[in-house]
Amino acid sequence: MTGDVAVATGDEVRPPQGSEPPAGQAGGGPGERGFTQVLIDAVTRGNSVVVTIAAFVLAIVVGGLIIAFTNTTVLHAWGNLFSAPGKAFAAAWDTASGAYTAMFEGAIVNPHAVSAAFHGGPISAVFNPLSETAVTATPIILSGLGVALAFRAGLFNIGAASQFIGGAMIAGWIGFAVHLPIVLHVVVAVIGGFVGGAAVGGFAGFLKARTGAHEVITTIMLNYVMEYLLIYLLGLTVFRRPGNPNPISPTIAKNAQLPHLFGANLRVNAGFLIALAAAAAVWLMLYRTTTGFQLRTVGSNPRAARSAGMRPERSWIIVMLVAGGLAGLAGASVVQGTNFDLAPLIWGTYNVYAITVALLGRASPVGTVLAGLLFGALRAGGVTMQASTQIPVDIVTVIQALIVLFVAAPPLMRAIFRFRAPRSGGEQLEARGWGG
Amino acid sequence: MGRLTVASPALIAMRRSITVERRVVMGGLLFLLGLVDALVFGYLAPKGHAVFTFTPTGAAVRVPNLSITPRPVDIGLGVVSCVLGGLYAALDMMTVARRIVATVCALALLVSFLCWAGAGRIPLPFVSLLATTVNSSIPLMLGALAGCLCERAGVINVAIEGQLLTGAFGAAVVASAFGSLWLGLVSGAACGVFIALMLGYFAIRYRVDQIVLGIVLDLFAAGITGYLYDAALVPFANRLNSPPTFNALKIPLLGDIPIIGPVLFDSTIFLYITYAVIVLVQVGLFSTRWGLRVRAVGEHPTAADTVGINVLATRWRNVILGGVLAGIGGAYLTIGSVGSFGKTMSSGLGFIALAAMIFGRWNPLGACAAALLFGFMTALSSVLGTIGSPIPSDILLMFPYIATIVAVAGLVGRGRPPKADGQPYEKA
After folding, report:
1. How far B354 CA sits from the closest chain A CA (Å)?
2. CB B404 to CB A217 under 8 A?
3. Distance from B34 to chain A by nearest Cα, in Å?
4. What does the alpha-carbon distance between residue A60 and residue A91 come to, in Å, rounded to a whole number?
5. Splitting chain B (428 residues) into consecutive groups of 10 residues, what average pLDDT does each group show?
6. Contact A359/B423, CB-based, under 8 Å?
7. Domains parsed from chain B with CATH numbers
8. Total beta-carbon pairs less than 8 A apart between chain A and chain B
9. Where exactly are the structural domains of chain A?
10. Whether A175 contacts A331, CB under 8 Å
């Protein structure tokens, strides 16, 4: 756990110098100070992990207030504040805590399922919430890694949706139109997913490198282009499920489906392992290859990189190819792991998830995985919450936005939580204009 | 990049040489477009005439319909385009001449495309095409102007999308609850300001990265309006989400002019507000003391501070003004057109507005022209859908987005953002 902390504190989006402490070494932090001192400093001065936790708590509180004060029962109780003041507060508390309890039961563990398991109920029900969290987190982590990697090269990749669609399209097509033996089929389809995403991402990188078109605009526009392209393709006979009037593709072959990890009752599948492996690969690429060093340099200072003989244009294309490929893997993981076919709206809200987890994870692979798990849990819990309490799942989006907003403004967090000023440097994202 | 200029500034402004490579690429592209006009749209055009009507129902003056036989016209236009492309590549023309050539070629492509698409089909209502263009551009223009105001003062505003969405939400709810359109309009603007205040608070006060901030605010706006929609607007749809809409206001005399009257002078109050705002922002930014100060703050805040301009206050003021404009643009989406609010109904318009502002080189007029171009693409896809186009509607719907990519990819040259755009200012 300390290893994670060291990584998260050492890794900022745009490091001032190119030598971060490598992950997995707890000594990457202060060096001469003892562990207790480090811990006290972390809490009183608010290092990035503590700031993230504080931001999470603050967002949960604000979200709870929104839940409570948009509920008619609560508003009614507050209308009678002076006749029954206790009731007003109790109603607000009950509504908000009920929502969060349902969320927790849907994302981590449901006590009822546990007690049922002791009385002969299914064991898988106990682990179902965690399985759902992992399943939901898989595409979020993968697409988030794509955004995080691009951040490292100084690019804002807002095109996770388009790259996701590119990957899902190819992986899905290989899944239902091509016939291959077991194992090979899954592998080929996943690789196809990577290639599909890489093509879309690489195109944005190419435009940036060759024409200087700002990637924020081109990637956003590509999202819409790819959405309409997918809908268009689903209307063609090549992509259409025979005998079905809806725009939906045939189900992919059994051979192309990602295998379940813990039996058929839990949805968690090999996609989760792909996500973890991809995070490791991104880490290796960033910190153990020349390409990674170059792209980090380009990200922190393109001019310095250029005068050192590096070519930022080359880094931009490479990084967008890989970033697109990662988002493409996210698409493949959804098509091959949970949905098993292509349909409109398959891109969901992974675009904003990808950006928010990359920001929350401070663009580090480990941070992105952790943030992806957190948002996967929020989302999985949010779905359960909507089903059991009728509170709209969109509140999760609000909470996510608030978390990232608070994390992006450490001075605000210091003001609210009375953290002292940091010892050196700052954990703030370095602001930068359109120039890139 | 690497432009060699050895002439006097006046001459540079008049004649900005471009590299031979760029000239050849661009000329070749125009030549190719000419081939597309002649071969694809001309040679392969289906039999029958393409008919364009210019008289909407109930117009005072009748304008005769225009009937075109596609093949000769398209081939002719294609030849013109090819010749101009060749000239573009061969000669080192003046900037003005290059622009005229590019515009003529683009128009040739458009006309030949319309002839091809309309050949042998029901008449294409040209006036309603233009009217749809102008009206669907209203939120884009207001959003782009909001972007201009913010970025000229040095604050990047990627939250236009969120401002449009909250503006649409606030206008629909208030107009529906109180039955007052004007109150709806004001609260739409107020909701835009609400997001603007968050933008200012985090960008100016806490110096958060502004692109990141804008994206997060868009997410926040989508989340909060989506949540409130499900929590309040769906169960109380009659009370909270059935607003009235503004009626079209026809300006006397001007509204009766053939063709341009119905397009420019027969619309809701939103279009007239937009006219006023375009003039105010353009004149304000470039011909007043206020505008000079704003631009100074956006270009070189330290220098502006030195001569006594309050940098932070200027930025705050412009961010809030931008919020008002984008909020009104959002209000158009509900009480100006369809009425009730729908989840994520801004559907990327804010981002297109942002692209329009960049395409328009951070100039109010340029940004509005770009917004109209995107609006035209949207209108074209909907009109072609109704007359039964040979191109599938999903492909037509891609038009505005592809046009944006082509536009920012620099076929029309690169703009330069204000120098301190996105840089937080801290008094030394």
Report:
1. 8
2. yes
3. 23
4. 18
5. 41 54 83 87 81 78 82 89 90 82 88 85 87 94 96 94 96 95 96 96 89 90 94 91 91 86 90 96 96 95 94 96 97 93 89 87 92 88 81 82 79 70 81
6. no
7. 9-121 (no CATH), 131-411 (1.10.3470)
8. 164
9. 136-386
10. no
